[in-house]
Protein backbone atom coordinates (compact mmCIF):
# COMPACT_ATOMS: atom_id res chain seq x y z
CA UNK A 1 0.00 0.00 0.00
CA UNK A 2 1.40 3.38 -1.02
CA UNK A 3 0.92 6.69 0.77
CA UNK A 4 0.27 10.08 -0.85
CA UNK A 5 0.06 13.42 0.98
CA UNK A 6 -1.75 16.23 -0.84
CA UNK A 7 -1.23 19.86 0.25
CA UNK A 8 -3.56 22.72 -0.53
CA UNK A 9 -6.04 24.94 1.20
CA UNK A 10 -7.32 28.41 1.93
CA UNK A 11 -9.67 28.71 -1.02
CA UNK A 12 -11.68 26.54 -3.38
CA UNK A 13 -9.05 27.26 -6.03
CA UNK A 14 -6.68 24.98 -4.12
CA UNK A 15 -9.04 22.56 -2.38
CA UNK A 16 -11.23 21.63 -5.36
CA UNK A 17 -8.43 20.20 -7.54
CA UNK A 18 -6.96 18.53 -4.46
CA UNK A 19 -10.23 16.71 -3.76
CA UNK A 20 -10.68 15.76 -7.42
CA UNK A 21 -7.15 14.36 -7.59
CA UNK A 22 -7.53 12.47 -4.31
CA UNK A 23 -10.72 10.81 -5.51
CA UNK A 24 -9.13 9.88 -8.84
CA UNK A 25 -6.19 8.31 -6.97
CA UNK A 26 -8.51 6.25 -4.78
CA UNK A 27 -10.58 5.20 -7.79
CA UNK A 28 -7.40 3.98 -9.49
CA UNK A 29 -6.01 2.28 -6.37
CA UNK A 30 -8.35 1.93 -3.36
CA UNK A 31 -5.50 0.56 -1.24
CA UNK A 32 -3.69 3.91 -1.21
CA UNK A 33 -3.34 5.92 1.99
CA UNK A 34 -4.39 9.38 0.78
CA UNK A 35 -4.32 12.28 3.24
CA UNK A 36 -4.74 16.04 2.78
CA UNK A 37 -2.83 18.77 4.60
CA UNK A 38 -4.35 22.18 5.29
CA UNK A 39 -4.72 24.79 8.01
CA UNK A 40 -7.48 25.60 10.47
CA UNK A 41 -8.16 28.97 8.83
CA UNK A 42 -9.20 27.75 5.39
CA UNK A 43 -12.38 26.19 4.03
CA UNK A 44 -10.53 22.85 3.82
CA UNK A 45 -11.65 22.11 7.39
CA UNK A 46 -15.18 21.86 6.00
CA UNK A 47 -14.92 20.63 2.41
CA UNK A 48 -12.18 18.00 2.73
CA UNK A 49 -13.82 15.98 5.54
CA UNK A 50 -17.15 16.41 3.72
CA UNK A 51 -15.51 14.72 0.71
CA UNK A 52 -14.62 11.75 2.92
CA UNK A 53 -10.90 12.49 3.04
CA UNK A 54 -8.67 12.61 6.15
CA UNK A 55 -7.22 16.05 6.92
CA UNK A 56 -4.06 16.91 8.86
CA UNK A 57 -3.44 20.51 9.98
CA UNK A 58 -0.35 22.69 10.10
CA UNK A 59 0.03 26.32 11.16
CA UNK A 60 -0.66 28.87 8.40
CA UNK A 61 2.28 30.89 7.07
CA UNK A 62 0.78 33.61 4.86
CA UNK A 63 3.18 36.15 3.38
CA UNK A 64 2.31 39.75 4.43
CA UNK A 65 1.54 42.07 1.54
CA UNK A 66 3.57 44.88 3.15
CA UNK A 67 6.82 44.99 5.15
CA UNK A 68 6.33 45.12 8.90
CA UNK A 69 6.37 43.13 12.11
CA UNK A 70 4.45 40.23 10.54
CA UNK A 71 7.12 39.83 7.87
CA UNK A 72 9.78 39.41 10.56
CA UNK A 73 7.77 36.55 12.05
CA UNK A 74 7.62 34.56 8.81
CA UNK A 75 10.90 32.60 9.25
CA UNK A 76 9.87 31.34 12.70
CA UNK A 77 6.36 30.49 11.54
CA UNK A 78 7.73 28.71 8.49
CA UNK A 79 10.13 26.61 10.57
CA UNK A 80 7.26 25.58 12.84
CA UNK A 81 5.03 24.65 9.91
CA UNK A 82 7.83 22.70 8.19
CA UNK A 83 8.39 20.72 11.38
CA UNK A 84 4.66 19.96 11.59
CA UNK A 85 4.62 18.92 7.92
CA UNK A 86 7.66 16.69 8.44
CA UNK A 87 5.90 14.91 11.31
CA UNK A 88 2.87 14.29 9.08
CA UNK A 89 5.05 12.88 6.30
CA UNK A 90 6.81 10.60 8.78
CA UNK A 91 3.58 9.47 10.40
CA UNK A 92 2.10 8.47 7.05
CA UNK A 93 5.39 7.19 5.60
CA UNK A 94 4.66 9.27 2.51
CA UNK A 95 5.81 7.98 -0.88
CA UNK A 96 4.93 11.24 -2.65
CA UNK A 97 3.71 14.76 -1.96
CA UNK A 98 1.28 16.48 -4.32
CA UNK A 99 1.06 20.25 -3.85
CA UNK A 100 -1.50 22.67 -5.24
CA UNK A 101 0.24 25.90 -4.28
CA UNK A 102 -0.70 28.56 -1.76
CA UNK A 103 0.66 29.10 1.73
CA UNK A 104 -0.30 25.56 2.80
CA UNK A 105 1.96 23.94 0.23
CA UNK A 106 5.25 25.72 0.92
CA UNK A 107 6.02 24.05 4.30
CA UNK A 108 5.03 20.65 2.91
CA UNK A 109 7.24 21.13 -0.16
CA UNK A 110 10.21 22.02 2.06
CA UNK A 111 9.60 19.10 4.43
CA UNK A 112 9.33 16.68 1.51
CA UNK A 113 12.52 17.99 -0.05
CA UNK A 114 14.40 17.53 3.23
CA UNK A 115 13.21 13.92 3.40
CA UNK A 116 13.89 13.31 -0.33
CA UNK A 117 10.24 12.49 -0.97
CA UNK A 118 9.18 12.99 -4.62
CA UNK A 119 7.10 16.13 -5.16
CA UNK A 120 4.38 16.57 -7.79
CA UNK A 121 3.46 20.23 -8.30
CA UNK A 122 0.15 21.34 -9.79
CA UNK A 123 -0.43 24.97 -10.75
CA UNK A 124 -4.05 25.98 -11.27
CA UNK A 125 -3.60 29.41 -12.83
CA UNK A 126 -1.95 30.59 -16.03
CA UNK A 127 0.48 32.62 -13.90
CA UNK A 128 2.00 30.64 -11.00
CA UNK A 129 2.11 31.64 -7.36
CA UNK A 130 5.20 31.90 -5.16
CA UNK A 131 5.02 28.43 -3.57
CA UNK A 132 4.82 26.63 -6.89
CA UNK A 133 7.57 28.77 -8.41
CA UNK A 134 9.85 27.66 -5.58
CA UNK A 135 8.83 23.99 -5.73
CA UNK A 136 9.24 23.86 -9.51
CA UNK A 137 12.96 24.48 -9.04
CA UNK A 138 13.49 21.16 -7.26
CA UNK A 139 10.66 18.98 -8.60
CA UNK A 140 10.85 16.91 -11.78
CA UNK A 141 7.06 16.60 -11.89
CA UNK A 142 5.45 19.99 -12.59
CA UNK A 143 1.88 19.96 -13.94
CA UNK A 144 -0.08 22.96 -15.22
CA UNK A 145 -3.67 23.74 -16.14
CA UNK A 146 -3.09 26.11 -19.04
CA UNK A 147 -0.62 26.22 -21.94
CA UNK A 148 2.31 28.65 -21.71
CA UNK A 149 2.28 28.73 -17.90
CA UNK A 150 5.81 29.98 -17.08
CA UNK A 151 7.16 27.09 -15.00
CA UNK A 152 10.30 25.19 -16.10
CA UNK A 153 9.70 21.72 -17.48
CA UNK A 154 5.95 21.98 -17.00
CA UNK A 155 3.58 19.38 -18.46
CA UNK A 156 0.04 20.34 -19.47
CA UNK A 157 -2.57 18.10 -17.81
CA UNK A 158 -5.43 20.55 -17.24
CA UNK A 159 -7.25 21.39 -14.02
CA UNK A 160 -8.70 18.49 -12.00
CA UNK A 161 -12.43 18.99 -11.43
CA UNK A 162 -15.15 16.83 -9.92
CA UNK A 163 -16.35 13.92 -12.05
CA UNK A 164 -19.93 15.12 -11.67
CA UNK A 165 -18.99 18.35 -13.44
CA UNK A 166 -16.68 16.72 -15.99
CA UNK A 167 -19.40 14.24 -17.00
CA UNK A 168 -22.35 16.65 -16.77
CA UNK A 169 -24.92 16.29 -19.55
CA UNK A 170 -26.42 19.78 -19.46
CA UNK A 171 -29.15 19.06 -21.99
CA UNK A 172 -30.41 15.98 -20.13
CA UNK A 173 -30.45 17.81 -16.80
CA UNK A 174 -31.72 21.15 -18.09
CA UNK A 175 -35.43 20.89 -17.29
CA UNK A 176 -35.15 19.52 -13.76
CA UNK A 177 -32.31 21.91 -12.91
CA UNK A 178 -34.22 24.99 -14.10
CA UNK A 179 -37.38 23.97 -12.27
CA UNK A 180 -35.30 23.47 -9.13
CA UNK A 181 -34.44 27.18 -9.25
CA UNK A 182 -38.08 28.11 -9.98
CA UNK A 183 -37.19 28.99 -13.57
CA UNK A 184 -39.02 28.13 -16.80
CA UNK A 185 -36.69 25.83 -18.79
CA UNK A 186 -38.31 26.95 -22.04
CA UNK A 187 -36.85 30.45 -21.68
CA UNK A 188 -33.23 31.52 -22.24
CA UNK A 189 -31.43 31.64 -18.88
CA UNK A 190 -28.40 33.70 -17.87
CA UNK A 191 -26.39 32.40 -14.91
CA UNK A 192 -24.50 35.09 -13.00
CA UNK A 193 -21.88 34.30 -10.37
CA UNK A 194 -18.82 36.05 -9.03
CA UNK A 195 -17.62 32.98 -7.15
CA UNK A 196 -18.34 31.86 -3.61
CA UNK A 197 -17.90 35.39 -2.25
CA UNK A 198 -19.71 37.12 -5.09
CA UNK A 199 -18.38 40.07 -7.13
CA UNK A 200 -19.70 43.56 -6.49
CA UNK A 201 -18.96 44.96 -9.93
CA UNK A 202 -20.75 42.07 -11.63
CA UNK A 203 -23.66 42.17 -9.18
CA UNK A 204 -24.13 45.91 -9.66
CA UNK A 205 -24.00 45.66 -13.45
CA UNK A 206 -26.54 42.84 -13.54
CA UNK A 207 -28.98 44.63 -11.25
CA UNK A 208 -28.67 47.66 -13.52
CA UNK A 209 -29.23 45.55 -16.65
CA UNK A 210 -31.97 43.41 -15.13
CA UNK A 211 -35.01 45.26 -16.46
CA UNK A 212 -33.64 45.39 -20.01
CA UNK A 213 -32.77 41.69 -19.97
CA UNK A 214 -36.16 40.67 -18.58
CA UNK A 215 -37.84 42.86 -21.19
CA UNK A 216 -35.86 40.96 -23.84
CA UNK A 217 -37.28 37.70 -22.49
CA UNK A 218 -34.06 36.56 -20.79
CA UNK A 219 -34.37 34.98 -17.35
CA UNK A 220 -31.59 35.41 -14.78
CA UNK A 221 -30.28 33.12 -12.05
CA UNK A 222 -28.20 35.54 -9.99
CA UNK A 223 -25.81 34.06 -7.41
CA UNK A 224 -24.91 37.18 -5.43
CA UNK A 225 -22.75 35.61 -2.71
CA UNK A 226 -23.86 35.06 0.88
CA UNK A 227 -22.35 38.34 2.08
CA UNK A 228 -24.04 40.36 -0.65
CA UNK A 229 -27.65 39.20 -0.72
CA UNK A 230 -30.15 41.35 1.21
CA UNK A 231 -33.88 41.45 1.88
CA UNK A 232 -34.28 43.80 -1.10
CA UNK A 233 -33.07 41.07 -3.47
CA UNK A 234 -36.37 39.46 -4.37
CA UNK A 235 -37.67 37.27 -7.17
CA UNK A 236 -39.19 39.14 -10.11
CA UNK A 237 -41.44 37.97 -12.94
CA UNK A 238 -41.72 40.31 -15.90
CA UNK A 239 -45.47 40.85 -16.50
CA UNK A 240 -45.01 41.29 -20.25
CA UNK A 241 -42.43 38.70 -21.30
CA UNK A 242 -42.75 36.26 -18.39
CA UNK A 243 -38.96 36.25 -17.96
CA UNK A 244 -37.81 35.61 -14.40
CA UNK A 245 -35.16 36.99 -12.05
CA UNK A 246 -34.11 34.66 -9.25
CA UNK A 247 -31.52 35.98 -6.74
CA UNK A 248 -29.79 33.50 -4.42
CA UNK A 249 -26.90 33.86 -2.01
CA UNK A 250 -25.20 30.56 -2.74
CA UNK A 251 -25.69 27.41 -4.82
CA UNK A 252 -24.80 24.13 -3.14
CA UNK A 253 -24.59 22.20 -6.41
CA UNK A 254 -23.12 24.20 -9.28
CA UNK A 255 -23.79 21.32 -11.68
CA UNK A 256 -27.49 22.21 -11.47
CA UNK A 257 -26.77 25.89 -12.13
CA UNK A 258 -24.61 25.03 -15.15
CA UNK A 259 -27.29 22.67 -16.47
CA UNK A 260 -30.05 25.26 -16.13
CA UNK A 261 -28.15 27.99 -17.98
CA UNK A 262 -27.61 28.90 -21.62
CA UNK A 263 -24.93 31.51 -20.86
CA UNK A 264 -22.85 32.50 -17.84
CA UNK A 265 -21.49 35.86 -16.68
CA UNK A 266 -18.62 35.25 -14.26
CA UNK A 267 -15.08 35.85 -13.08
CA UNK A 268 -12.29 33.91 -14.78
CA UNK A 269 -10.76 31.99 -11.92
CA UNK A 270 -9.18 28.78 -13.13
CA UNK A 271 -11.98 26.58 -11.80
CA UNK A 272 -14.74 28.62 -13.42
CA UNK A 273 -12.94 28.79 -16.77
CA UNK A 274 -12.39 25.04 -16.84
CA UNK A 275 -15.82 24.02 -15.54
CA UNK A 276 -17.69 26.21 -18.02
CA UNK A 277 -15.50 24.96 -20.88
CA UNK A 278 -15.73 21.27 -19.99
CA UNK A 279 -19.53 21.53 -19.71
CA UNK A 280 -19.71 23.54 -22.98
CA UNK A 281 -21.42 26.43 -21.19
CA UNK A 282 -20.65 29.66 -23.09
CA UNK A 283 -19.39 32.43 -20.83
CA UNK A 284 -18.73 36.14 -20.60
CA UNK A 285 -15.66 36.48 -18.38
CA UNK A 286 -14.96 39.53 -16.22
CA UNK A 287 -11.45 38.96 -14.82
CA UNK A 288 -10.72 40.05 -11.27
CA UNK A 289 -8.49 43.12 -11.72
CA UNK A 290 -6.20 42.24 -8.79
CA UNK A 291 -3.44 39.76 -8.02
CA UNK A 292 -0.83 39.22 -10.73
CA UNK A 293 -3.28 39.32 -13.63
CA UNK A 294 -3.75 35.55 -13.71
CA UNK A 295 -7.52 35.71 -14.24
CA UNK A 296 -7.18 37.49 -17.58
CA UNK A 297 -4.49 35.01 -18.60
CA UNK A 298 -6.67 32.06 -17.57
CA UNK A 299 -9.22 33.03 -20.21
CA UNK A 300 -6.65 33.52 -23.00
CA UNK A 301 -6.92 30.00 -24.51
CA UNK A 302 -10.69 30.41 -24.89
CA UNK A 303 -10.37 33.89 -26.35
CA UNK A 304 -7.85 32.60 -28.89
CA UNK A 305 -10.36 29.93 -29.97
CA UNK A 306 -13.29 32.38 -30.18
CA UNK A 307 -14.79 30.34 -27.36
CA UNK A 308 -15.88 33.08 -24.99
CA UNK A 309 -16.19 36.82 -24.43
CA UNK A 310 -13.97 38.90 -22.15
CA UNK A 311 -15.11 42.16 -20.56
CA UNK A 312 -12.59 44.11 -18.42
CA UNK A 313 -13.84 44.80 -14.91
CA UNK A 314 -13.63 48.56 -15.51
CA UNK A 315 -16.04 48.18 -18.44
CA UNK A 316 -18.49 45.89 -16.66
CA UNK A 317 -21.51 48.16 -16.33
CA UNK A 318 -25.22 47.74 -16.96
CA UNK A 319 -25.08 48.93 -20.57
CA UNK A 320 -22.20 46.62 -21.52
CA UNK A 321 -23.72 43.59 -19.79
CA UNK A 322 -27.11 44.18 -21.39
CA UNK A 323 -25.58 44.56 -24.86
CA UNK A 324 -23.28 41.52 -24.63
CA UNK A 325 -25.92 39.19 -23.19
CA UNK A 326 -28.66 40.18 -25.62
CA UNK A 327 -26.32 39.89 -28.61
CA UNK A 328 -25.30 36.35 -27.64
CA UNK A 329 -28.77 35.17 -26.69
CA UNK A 330 -30.28 36.21 -30.03
CA UNK A 331 -28.44 33.40 -31.83
CA UNK A 332 -28.87 30.13 -29.89
CA UNK A 333 -27.00 28.06 -32.51
CA UNK A 334 -23.97 30.36 -32.37
CA UNK A 335 -24.09 30.18 -28.58
CA UNK A 336 -24.01 26.39 -28.64
CA UNK A 337 -21.13 26.45 -31.14
CA UNK A 338 -19.18 28.76 -28.83
CA UNK A 339 -19.63 26.31 -25.97
CA UNK A 340 -18.45 23.40 -28.11
CA UNK A 341 -15.33 25.33 -29.13
CA UNK A 342 -14.59 25.90 -25.44
CA UNK A 343 -15.01 22.20 -24.69
CA UNK A 344 -12.48 21.35 -27.41
CA UNK A 345 -9.83 23.57 -25.80
CA UNK A 346 -9.86 22.29 -22.21
CA UNK A 347 -9.08 18.72 -21.05
CA UNK A 348 -11.91 17.13 -19.08
CA UNK A 349 -9.88 14.28 -17.58
CA UNK A 350 -7.21 16.21 -15.68
CA UNK A 351 -8.02 14.42 -12.42
CA UNK A 352 -7.25 11.07 -14.04
CA UNK A 353 -4.12 12.46 -15.70
CA UNK A 354 -2.88 13.74 -12.33
CA UNK A 355 -3.61 10.40 -10.68
CA UNK A 356 -1.63 8.59 -13.38
CA UNK A 357 1.36 10.90 -12.86
CA UNK A 358 1.33 10.29 -9.10
CA UNK A 359 1.00 6.52 -9.51
CA UNK A 360 3.97 6.52 -11.88
CA UNK A 361 6.01 8.54 -9.38
CA UNK A 362 5.37 6.15 -6.49
CA UNK A 363 5.91 3.13 -8.73
Automatic annotation (TrEMBL):
Swiss-Prot/TrEMBL keywords: Cell cycle, Cell division, Cell membrane, Cell shape, Cell wall biogenesis/degradation, Glycosyltransferase, Membrane, Peptidoglycan synthesis, Transferase
Residue stretches spanning the membrane: none
Residue ranges constituting the Glycosyl transferase family 28 C-terminal domain according to the UniProt record: 190-342
Pathway the protein acts in: Cell wall biogenesis; peptidoglycan biosynthesis
GO cellular component: plasma membrane
Residue intervals of the Glycosyltransferase family 28 N-terminal domain: 4-143
Top EC group: transferase
A Pfam entry, by short name: Glyco_tran_28_C
Membrane topology according to the record: Peripheral membrane protein
Signal peptide range in chain numbering: none
Superkingdom field: Bacteria
Reactions accelerated catalytically: di-trans,octa-cis-undecaprenyl diphospho-N-acetyl-alpha-D-muramoyl-L-alanyl-D-glutamyl-meso-2,6-diaminopimeloyl-D-alanyl-D-alanine + UDP-N-acetyl-alpha-D-glucosamine = di-trans,octa-cis-undecaprenyl diphospho-[N-acetyl-alpha-D-glucosaminyl-(1->4)]-N-acetyl-alpha-D-muramoyl-L-alanyl-D-glutamyl-meso-2,6-diaminopimeloyl-D-alanyl-D-alanine + UDP + H(+)
Location(s), subcellular: Cell membrane
Entry binding sites for UDP-N-acetyl-alpha-D-glucosamine: 11-13, 125, 162, 196, 295
GO molecular function, one term: undecaprenyldiphospho-muramoylpentapeptide beta-N-acetylglucosaminyltransferase activity
GO terms of biological process kind: carbohydrate metabolic process; cell division; cell wall organization; peptidoglycan biosynthetic process; regulation of cell shape
EC number(s) per entry: 2.4.1.227
Family recorded in the similarity comment: Belongs to the glycosyltransferase 28 family. MurG subfamily.
Function: Cell wall formation. Catalyzes the transfer of a GlcNAc subunit on undecaprenyl-pyrophosphoryl-MurNAc-pentapeptide (lipid intermediate I) to form undecaprenyl-pyrophosphoryl-MurNAc-(pentapeptide)GlcNAc (lipid intermediate II).
Name of this chain's protein: UDP-N-acetylglucosamine--N-acetylmuramyl-(pentapeptide) pyrophosphoryl-undecaprenol N-acetylglucosamine transferase
Species for this entry: Candidatus Avipropionibacterium avicola
Amino acid sequence: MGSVVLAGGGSAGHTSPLIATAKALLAADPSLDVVAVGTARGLETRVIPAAGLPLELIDPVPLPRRPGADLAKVPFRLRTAVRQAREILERHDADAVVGFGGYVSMPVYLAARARRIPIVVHEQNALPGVANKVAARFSRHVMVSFPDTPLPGARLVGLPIRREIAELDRAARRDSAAVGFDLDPQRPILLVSGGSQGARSINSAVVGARDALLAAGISILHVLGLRNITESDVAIDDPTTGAQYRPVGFVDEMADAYAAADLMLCRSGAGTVVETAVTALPAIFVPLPHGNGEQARNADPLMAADAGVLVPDAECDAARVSAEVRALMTDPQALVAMGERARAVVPGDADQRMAQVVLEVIG
